Amino acid sequence: MSEIADQLTGRTVIVGSGLAGLMAALTLAPQPVVIVTRAGLGAETSSAWAQGGIAAALGADDSAALHLADTLAAGDGLCDPAIAAGIVAEAPDAIAALEQAGVCFDRAADGALSLGLEAAHNRRRIVHAQGDGSGAEIIRALVAAVIATPSVTVLEGLEARRILTDEEGVTGLVCAGENNAILLPTRRIVLATGGIGGLYEATTNPTGNFGQGIMLAARAGAALADMEFVQFHPTALDSRRRPLALVSEAVRGEGAVLVNERGERFMADVSGAELAPRDVVARAISAELARGGRVFLDARGVLGNRFAARFPVIDALCREAGIDASCQLIPVRPAVHYHMGGVATDAAGRSSVSGLWVAGEAASTGLHGANRLASNSLLEAAVMGMRAARDILSMPAAEPPVAETGIALPAAADLSCIRPVVSRHLGVLRNAGAIHGAVASLLPLAEVDGAASDPAVVALLIAVFASLRAESRGAHARTDFPLKRAEAARRKMTLAEALEIARATASHPLARSA
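and the corresponding structure tokens:
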């Protein structure tokens, strides 16, 4: 049986309580909204785990044009220049809005914001809060602001399972409660559900995040974009901890270097060295690991005893693993960190389904292109969360939909049979055989109702998009197509279209032999 939340009918529903969702809720005030979150408010979000901070051109030697140039370079030809220009231009306003909401950013002795340097940035423009605890501080402040906002109703412990639609667009959200299905009738939904790291065995994301927002939107008929581009953070702490702890690029920004087990600085002759784009560094580390070697981050000379003060969170994580970063090498390996692909949206966060907005990592706006520039993710989440909210506020009130009854609740997701397939076939280095093998394994799971169906849909979308990109670009590296094509092209398709391609791919000899 399903329970209809009549008292909340017609309110905008925000799914997710990371940075994008919280900023959307605050911006919509005093319009009544509902936040649906699987865990506690602000918990189990990648936003809260972010160490690097927010990229914003605030320095005297910096500008939005320089920030844009770095963003486009990292995006490897696939950024939407107009979208990217608009988002980076709004960075100062986003920082101001966050401060107004209660975020305390780090400042120098003269009161100016303290700006850090990260990979592929040509200026110091990373705004931090509490050192490497930026995400936690930002979410702490925003959660407090949301709790103090009377127009926001928070429903914790609910998991969104399906979006309902009619010929006009969105009509409701089906959620799994403690004992039954709960329906929230609404014409407006904002998905801010985070990334897809939980599909992989090695990730720095919350392990339960398998791309729920992408799945919800895809099943509702929304167009997806650039799903093949999965960013592997090159320096996750190589330990038994799951998910893997992140060793922020800011450590390399302070001068730490990468060495192998022989003590060789293998990135020294690469353009940008340790601060090259993430895909370059991740592939270099993967090559060292593939030959049976090990990789370490050496911060002893540049930070030494100052490591704990500059990076207290990372220092604690290292000590948890038995490593004293002030005098010992830090073992690192690549791990899934961010997804550049997602639900295709416009500049206001609108998807192709009327009444459905998507913000943050679940969306593909065109800002990141083939490879996200460090610390642009929190910037995008803040800006697009606010934009989606403003777009909703600009619209006339929607007529409340008629609530449906007797809705069947889809099974809870089980990723146990998905992770091995995705980790093996859709990792840092890919080829046709591996990709076809992924499609052949995932398609049967995606086409039937079952516990593996929802994560299989997201993983299959990644595989199908990867099969169509016969080149190496940004975070998508193929050993059978090591070069970039002359012309860069973004790709969009619906789940129905992807399933047609997958069926054809699964019958290919490469798939049958994988």
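(Above: one complete record from the training split.) The first strand starts at residue 2 and ends at 4.
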